[in-house]
Fold this sequence. Notes:
Blueprint: E1 4-5, E2 17-19, H1 29-33, E3 39-42, E4 45-48, H2 58-62, E5 68-70, H3 74-82, E6 87-91, H4 101-104, H5 107-114, E7 118-121, H6 123-138, E8 146-147, H7 152-161, H8 175-187, E9 192-197, H9 201-205, E10 217-220, H10 221-230, H11 259-264, E11 275-279, H12 281-289, E12 296-300, H13 323-340, H14 348-354, H15 359-366, E13 370-371, H16 385-394, H17 414-423, H18 432-449, E14 453-457, E15 463-466, H19 468-473, H20 492-499, E16 505-511, E17 516-525, E18 530-537, H21 539-598
Parallel strand pairs: 1-13, 6-7, 6-9, 8-12, 9-10, 11-12
Antiparallel strand pairs: 2-5, 3-4, 14-15, 14-18, 16-17, 17-18
Helix pairs in contact: 6-8, 6-15, 16-17
Amino acid sequence: xxxxxxxxxxxxxxxxxxxxxxxxxxxxxxxxxxxxxxxxxxxxxxxxxxxxxxxxxxxxxxxxxxxxxxxxxxxxxxxxxxxxxxxxxxxxxxxxxxxxxxxxxxxxxxxxxxxxxxxxxxxxxxxxxxxxxxxxxxxxxxxxxxxxxxxxxxxxxxxxxxxxxxxxxxxxxxxxxxxxxxxxxxxxxxxxxxxxxxxxxxxxxxxxxxxxxxxxxxxxxxxxxxxxxxxxxxxxxxxxxxxxxxxxxxxxxxxxxxxxxxxxxxxxxxxxxxxxxxxxxxxxxxxxxxxxxxxxxxxxxxxxxxxxxxxxxxxxxxxxxxxxxxxxxxxxxxxxxxxxxxxxxxxxxxxxxxxxxxxxxxxxxxxxxxxxxxxxxxxxxxxxxxxxxxxxxxxxxxxxxxxxxxxxxxxxxxxxxxxxxxxxxxxxxxxxxxxxxxxxxxxxxxxxxxxxxxxxxxxxxxxxxxxxxxxxxxxxxxxxxxxxxxxxxxxxxxxxxxxxxxxxxxxxxxxxxxxxxxxxxxxxxxxxxxxxxxxxxxxxxxxxxxxxxxxxxxxxxxxxxxxxxxxxxxxxxxxxxxxxxxxxxxxxxxxxxxxxxxx
Length: 599
């Protein structure tokens, strides 16, 4: 059958990764870990650049504030079940990493209680994907290096950012798509398929198919656990049961490094030079760049594979699963499956014999072919060397030795950061050395413009530096730097500080020769072996206080004089009143005497 194109370009689909700005802090960690720098920083806040994002979920996993999240599709899943048609669940085999052995045996019942009419492991599709990949590799007559296409984040990164490698991608659909095709082959074309796994990139891949490989809804394990909580379903309350269909071969190893290699039956020895099974972005990128003709590269975007998927959620005990514990659980689950079929997991021949395909299945493998086309991306903004130099000039990095490439901004080099600034993805303030320089300049500006005189002395009480106010107070210039402070003033307060650096000297001193009165605060900088003097000019304040004291004294004196004058006046008036009273009394007595005589 003709191959079907698989559009894995994230920009043609709805955005699935978002930022909670209320929780986002300007730590730049998301910029640092994003492999494609799909983060824009504006006013210290991060946002996702949808057209650049490959939805790998690295920022979600690495954000220390949990400010990155993905689109929640729980309502969509619930609506599919509410419609009443046949809905199948494709459960990623990595689920085993996040449940204990007894819980794993109950998960099929949990899914049925949610309403799914068919529950199966995506490992069923992984088996067919591995076999189709092996068939394609057998026909690799050019003996070029080949890249396994199981991981959607790896595929999306290659076709968008490393298109020269796209021709090496094996044109076979992922296990999720293969399982959807298998489900509809068994249950009918009208069957709805819901995938559940730890991968955010699957939400993008799920929109890429309109044929029988379409995925109607993609949920992460985070959403799955939330769903169980919303429905009040406890794993312990469900009975043990089997999936409706069990995977074949070593397909349950698929979430781990080398899982496809093992399932395809290429080699049980990962030291084989033909096989390169890697995980993690940097390992993936380097392995492909340095691969040789005839080699098979099996890349997984997340470190340690799907066991470290960005949306692996929490266990039923409410604790985040550890990566290596999850890896151990997945391997244990895969081993149990092989032992149940009486197969020795260490003998590839047993697996290969058990995995013989029927003619019908061979025909099905041919339907798993696809094409990974190089998309037409929006033209990037052209960045000139002059623009880069302008950014370097503003951030004080014009000289090569000033370009530290410290990576604190989130970009590996100063040049990449400068390009991001020109493109509008980064801000100058993301550069730590630049911010430090600004802080120092602001501090220097504060010192330079301070109305208080500031002087710094060394351990021998020689002048190291002084600000303009100090030079104005003491009528000097920078020419006296290096001379002892005694050249300008009595050094006694500083000598007290020199004798006891732990103390702080505060005093008011009249520098008469400068017509200056200062309130002085002196203290030591022990680590720098320096002394600081801060001089506040209070000359006018002292003059005002003196004038006020004189005014008070004059007022008191005048009040006293007025009081004494009033007392003297009162005495004079009293004396006059006494004389008048005596005279009147004498006159009255005379009148009375005359009256007696006349009568």
